[in-house]
Amino acid sequence: MFFSAADVKSCMQRVQVLKYAEEACYNGSITIKAFSSGLEIGSCNWTISSPKANIGHVSSSIFQSETAMDFNYHALQGCDAILYSDNSARNILGNVEDENCHFASVNSDLSIKSDTDNSWEVIGEALLNADERSEEMEKLAFIISCAVDSVEAGGSVLVPIGRLGIVLQLLEQLSLSLKSSNLKVPIYVISTIAEELMAFTNIIPEWLCKLRQEKLYSGEPLFAHVELTREKRLHTFPAVHSLELLKIWQEPCIVFCPHWSLRLGPVVHLLRRWCRDQNSLLVMEEGVDAELALLPFKPMAMKALQCSFLSGIKLQKVQPLLKILQPDFVVFPEYLRRHIGPPNSSSSFLGYSENQTLRIPNRKELPELYISMDLATQLSWTKLDHMDTSIARLKGELVMEHGKHLLLPGNEQAISSDTRPLLHWGAMDLESLLAALQKMGIKGSVEQGMSDAGSEIASVLHIFEPSKALIEVKATTTVISASDESLASLISEAVNTILNSI
Amino acid sequence: MAIECLVLGAGQEVGKSCVVVTINGKRIMFDCGMHMGYDDHRRYPDFSLISESGHFDAALTCIVITHFLLRGYVYDNVLCFLSYYLILRYPTKALAPLMLEDYRKVMVDRRGEEEQFSSENVLDCLKKVTAVDLKQTVQVDKDLQIRAYYAGHVLGAAMFYAKVGESAMVYTGDYNMTPDRHLGAAQIDRLQLDLLITESTYATTVRDSKYAREREFLKSVHKCVANGGKVLIPTFALGRAQELCILLDDYWERMNLKVPIYFSAGLTIQANMYYKMLINWTSQKVKDTHATRNAFDFKHGDFTGAEGTIACSPKQSTSSDCSTSELAPSVALDGSTGIETSADRPSSRVLSSKIAGSIGTEEKISYINRSSSSPLLLESDFEEKNGLCSEKTTYISCFTGSVTLKNSVVAVCRFDRSLINAPGPCVLFATPGMISGGFSLEVFKNWAPSETNLVTLPGYCVAGTIGHRLMSGKPTTIELDKDTQIDVRCQIHQLSFSPHTDAKGIMDLVKFLSPKHVILVHGEKPKMALLKAKIQAELGIPGYDPANNETVCISSTHYVKADLSDKLIQTSLSPNFKFLKTRLAADCGLDSLNIKATSPLQLCDDRISEGILTMGKSQKAKVVHQDELLVILGDEKQGVQCANCFPVNMSNFDKIKSADELSGEVQLFDKSSQLYAKLSSELPELNIQDCGEFLQVESFRASVCLLDNCPHRTMDNPCDTFEAVYFCCTWAMEDEKLAWKVISIMKNFGINAP
Fold first, then answer.
1. What Pfam families does UniProt report for this protein, alphabetically (chain B) (predicted)?
2. Measured between alpha carbons, how far is B652 from B415 in angstroms, rounded to an integer?
3. Which residue of A has its CA nearest to B359?
């Protein structure tokens, strides 16, 4: 084993659980949010925003789901970069390769108006109105009709499908069909988490699609399996050898159980049992190599139905989607290059491939500092004569919060009001300094340019009243030497008036 | 700029919560309640203050509803605002139709008032409602952001955070800071807030421990039923009934009691179903047990095993038609119709949660599909079969809140009448709370005259209700109206089980959030004034307790925006923390001592002072690092240093080691380290570093000077009388005070040395 249950547990303790649209802040600087992707109950896309850029990560998404909350693509608007990593198209790309002209026609079909306000709505409708849903419903209806046929012929149906949404829908519709065909066939869900899953799916209305939420408001259970369980038409068991299961087991029956690979879990036992029965039916997901998966069970008399369910954004919807999102950059897997990125898009398109670091240029201007008004009024301004600019040294407490730099009034004691300037610039003119000092009642004399060989030219101002002091001036440094504190302080003040300082 | 806060309801009173807040041009209405104590216009907030013309559409950005309490948030008024963005949490939305329908029935049937809204209105209204998840950040429009936080209180209750621009506030609604049996305590993030509007129902009360309260409640109930009495628990707030029920269920099992517990309110039954469905909104403890046992499946009320059951009881759980069976001596009622539940045998308790057995059955007509004519039908049916007088209208109205099946209603009513006067002890939860009318009043009338009976009032009772009269001194008779008088001989027990926070809870929340201002609403005037003073005195936060229709204006945070240069961000990223005491001591302030005493570990991080804000005409303000400023100015830095070279009498220090044993260089180091030891002991608050050739404190450096005519030696008469060592010191201008302090200590060595 690579890991133990304890490892899983300790790992999960570090996991922070988020709700849709809940802000998680890392280090005050990065805000991470999750938005529903529609693929499965609880599945999501992410936005990561920092003061410098907002990035949206699009994983496999479904615009309208029968179970999960719809793909919330509006939340991805305003992202500077979209990291497109819906790889669901990879499997079917082979089929599309030949129809390269596809996109142009789709675009015109969707009647995208450019740069008008309502164009988004038009595209949005196009994204939602397409036939995805009815297509998926047809697929389910077909599976169910096959299942009913099998059951009627006395065979059993084995459904090792991993996708929860599909399983829940099949459960609902299958039970309806069985009822209307007046077939009293038990449905078993065999999994270690079956019972928990059934209970859990009924208490999570906030992750479900609108239609299911409506059920909550009208006081109905979110999924029909609650009722099925109560009517004893649906049974859940942790394992195929559960005592309870053995007691009530009857065939023909319909079994939902893991694992889709047909190598693990209850499916192995049941497949062995039924693979010679020509009336039985196996429903598989696409993505498994059926030949290989079924090899150990050969010769198979059992019927096998392999079905591909919608598992991401259809390629022809990528363009309209990006049009709505209008990111500066679209980063996409390299193999999609031929399908993503029309010449007339405002976005830049960058392809990525495995194990390669991609640098995305930052188009954003400088981040902003939010200086609290209270603090801004306390700043002491210095006007710069020649540049028509005022400058002020900042103080206060710099806070990074939700990706924003805030400058708030800090600890009052920490900011002493009369700090000396930290920075001086400009030229030191000794004559002016002498004049300034004389105004303060300090007397001295200038000793110009004592130039030693090899050393800097230094001028010196000797102070002799009120006490002895010395000001040494070089090209970029001034040194005040005084053994009397108040005199030193006075000289410093005089120097400040001559030099520019802040 | 300011935040304007107009209190339309719950200003210096309890009930009718309604506050309209204007932040940076956005107008948000928080809650929209009614007052249970009034029958006239005072029952509702004065909406004309929002917009005289009644164009609420233009006047409000959105309405936020925090929770349901007292079954009546005035949706008839909300209905006028249909085009709004109305925000509430999922559970609240789920419970809303129930509550509204119930409220509607009470208004129409009991009070005989004109129907203010129909079921269809309620439905239409709910379509406009946006439900939010906890902590979900909703962008109402470009500027307005709203987020819900968990508030405890009742299922679905939330505190709402609203932010427009940089101004932010929290409206708590009602909340609970101590977790109860089914809901956790309120939880909120530490937020930067300009304003906190908090409820203050229990502004001055500090409740004792939950455990003691629970024990007291259980003991009184036990005592009553042991003496053969009937216990009436009028419950109102959703959740209270559930909490008490879990409590009683546990206790009954522990004490092996057989007295039946009835759960009469249809409202509560249906609510129970939602509780089950929305279990992930309740407390963690309940949640954790959910996989194994749903806490809301009360032990003897769980009928999930009964197939197709409309109504059932433990004994009859196999019979699917027992509710319609006229023969069943005491028929338990249909959960889905939400009417009444009971035990079929005295030895069992039946609680209400059997909805599980009936939801989804085809017989069920959802309450939302019921046309407004059906209550009339029910009523006539009822009278026909029972020949009841008009007084019973009340009775029906309360029951029909979520009635769906005609035949069940009959069964319920017959059953229920027998229950009220049936012999033997029992416990009954009945709506509404406060005994303000409806079924609880009906039962109260029958049970109050007997001394053995007990009325337990959980929670607050609004003035004007019977509950309030019972609580404020025990009356012997209560006049219901001119003709009806009730003899009150039963025991009265008051329970502070209210899901409101107490004074400590409010203070804790205010302290935690530390907003700039606090507005108190939903409380009694004198108590609010006391709390306000307490908040001001203990937390130093200005508080307000406006009366209804008063507006409070508070200033809000505003920011000046400036571009921030990369260099400054870089330097800001590497913190240069200093212990604050260092700096304070350097400033020689007397205050520093106090600060040191209170917070010895305070840190000071002044990297921001390397930033310069520049503002030119017709260009955006920019913040740059001081080094960048010079580049912009095209000027060179002028270093300004101060220096002083002076003799220190080191004669006292050389006693231990003879100078001869040391070479010249070592001797110098030795002197410098001796100085270091001395300075460190004299100035423990300074961070003095011994760098070998020199000592350093901040920018101040001191080193032994070997030059004969050091230019910094400006003393008029060099002192040669003692064994002097010259120290040459330099420092930057900003450390002037520090430097002179160190120098004075160095100079005093010779004098002070022993």
1. Beta-Casp (PF10996), Lactamase_B_6 (PF16661), RMMBL (PF07521)
2. 106
3. A220
Tens digit of each residue's pLDDT (9 = 90 or more) over B591-644: 433 333 344 444 556 677 778 888 877 777 888 888 888 888 777 788 888 888
Which of B584, B638, B711 is opposite residue A425, by nearest beta carbon? B638
Question: Class of the B2-206+499-555 domain?
Answer: alpha beta
Q: Is the pLDDT of residue B566 over 90?
A: no
The CATH code of domain B641-752 reads 3.30.310
The beta-carbon neighbor of A367 closest among B133, B564, B635 is B564
Decide if B360 and A220 are in contact by the 8 Å CB cutoff: yes
What's the ipTM?
Answer: 0.77
State the Cα–Cα distance between residues A461 and B60, nearest whole angstrom. 72
Per CB-CB distance under 8 Å, the chain A contacts of B595 are: 413
What total number of domains does chain A contain? 4
Across the interface, do B638 and A476 touch by the CB < 8 Å criterion? yes
Q: Are residues A139 and A266 in the same domain?
A: yes
CATH number of the domain bearing residue A297: 3.40.50.10890
**Which residue in chain B is spatially nearest to A408 when comparing CA positions?**
B559
Q: Distance (Å) from the C-alpha of residue B123 to the closest C-alpha of chain A?
A: 10
Q: Give DSSP secondary structure letters for B354-421.
A: GGGGTTT-TT---GGG--TTHHHHHHHHHHHHH---TTHHHHHHHHGGG---HHHHHHHHHHHHHHHH
Active centre residues of B (catalytic): 199
Q: Which residues of A touch B97 (CB under 8 A)?
A: 217-218
| Pairing of the two strands A187-190 and A234-237 | parallel
A232 shares its domain with A96: no
Express each pLDDT in B116-142 by its tens digit.
566 666 666 666 677 787 888 888 888
Cα–Cα distance for residue pair A295/B286, rounded to 1 Å: 48
Residue of chain A whose Cα is closest to the Cα of B289: A196
Separation CA B754–CA B279 (nearest Å)? 78
Task: For residues A287 and A321, state if they share a domain.
Answer: no
Residue A148 has pLDDT above 80, yes or no: yes
Of B93, B277, B641, the CB nearest to A477: B641
